[in-house]
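Figure caption, in words: inputs first, then the predicted bound structure.
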Amino acid sequence: MLSPAAYVGLAVAGWLSYQWYWFRQNLKKVSAIPTIGSDGFIGSYLSAWKYFVSGHKMIEEGYRKYPGGAFKVATFETPSRWLIIVVGPKLSDDIRKASDDYLASNEPTIDALQMDYTFGTDRPHTAAHHMQMFSRPMTRNIAARFPDVQDEVVNSFKELLPASEDWTSYTVMETILPIVTRTSNCFFVGLPLCRNREYCLTLEQFAVRLMMSAYAITLSPSFFRPIVAALTTNVHTTQKKLRSFLGPIIQDRLRMYEDSGEDNEEKPNDMITWLLDLASEDLRTTEDVVARLLISNFAAIHTTTISLSDVLFHLAAYQEYIEPLRSEIDSVISTYGWSKESMVRLHKLDSFMKEVGRMRGVNNVTSQRKALRDFTFSNGVVVPKGFTVGIASSAQHYDSTIYEEPELFNPNRFLPERLQEKHDGRNLATSTENDNDPSSQVKHQMVSLDTNYILFGVGRHACPGRFFAVNELKGMAAYILLNYDLKLPNDEKVPPPGQHFGSARSPNPSAKILFRKRRT
Ligand code: HEM
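Bound structure (protoporphyrin IX containing FE present):
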């Protein structure tokens, strides 16, 4: 008869043997791809921790060592425990062109965010009608709704970042987050709900809690995950709260459909209508609309907050660019007013923001895809079924064969007239032929996709919210430039460094900027 301790010992030994066997089998499938860090059984576990705290450095190392190739890192973010990272625009283009049958875009998000736990298994499928909603009615209605959103930008800043005569210090991320939530929700659900602090707080806290919960679940052994999830996630309370705010509005909207038909011109022009219009009859429910609004907010508010915060840190550090930006904004707004058309014409501001996105951004590895069957890149690298692959976006944005003096912050880098010049053997100038046609001006602006510039990803799964995000960001940055002076504490001339968690990046959440009412 064995003692209880012996049973425990046997169970642990069995579990470790299984882990070792599984590890060896997995590693064999990707052994042709070089590793940054260790590929030993214990060593890779330590490397995965290293990737978690300083993944960007490992990515830079891989990018330098394997130009035009691929490398792998051990990570907790994927079920295979490996992330394959491709280097350079050619292989990024292979990802852009790959069909969903080979490389799935939603699976890495489901894995990294532990969505089965954090959103629940009955969440709306990522490839469902809300994806069409982003690229069709939402994007088409940016111009029509821009004035409302800009009004809310003004109201939010006045209330949450009041311009005082004296320099006042603000913690940037925590100040910007509620402003972004409110203005984004002005577009998504309109007034008065977008001004309801409890509604906005529910959305903000969900995203923060979800990220923490996803990390906690990812770092736990699989048999503990349901317990960790139960202790850390808040999706059910969040949805319940959101249903209490949104339920009456959605029910009113459904009554409107019943009474006056679907083509009723009086329907409010917001995300609730756009979702209901695209939904099949059985999905026209409060639960479904709430779940899709939650996913939309999750995708929108933190990415936009990070991006605006980075822009502000750069404006505060590089004061010499403020006046030229102000004079561009004055001249465009005095001719075209506060409109989407004006935002397209703010070339200097666009180039400034695009340069910030190049040097900072929200991801170190972008456009992650999971192979649903073996996928072969144009250079012969094979990603076996079940493994995740992504683009070394942050390292690529510092590649001197693509960007001249990549370490230099050059906010004029993406100005249309500069893009006339030959760059990397390609003439990128195609956008300025017709200065009166805003659509031709967009071609090389921040929203445009390019395998050299991967802030918003590549291909058909590139960010469908980027058109709204960039217009909103420009509206907010323009408002700040016209109404505030800003500077870094101690008149620092370098933006504060950001922080990295594996494949993700954000500014330092405690970094500050001093603001005062504009004096010049
Ligand atoms: C500056 C702000 C934003 C940044 C930097 C950003 C960045 C990204 C990136 C890198 C991706 C992955 C693309 C790929 O896999 O190739 C993505 C996907 C996505 N984004 Fe954004 N995003 C932003 C704002 C928004 C907003 C405002 C919305 C919605 C209103 C949104 C909705 C989405 C959705 C739904 C996807 C998934 C697309 C798919 O899988 O087909 N994003 N975003």
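Residues 121 and 362 are 26 Å apart (CA to CA).
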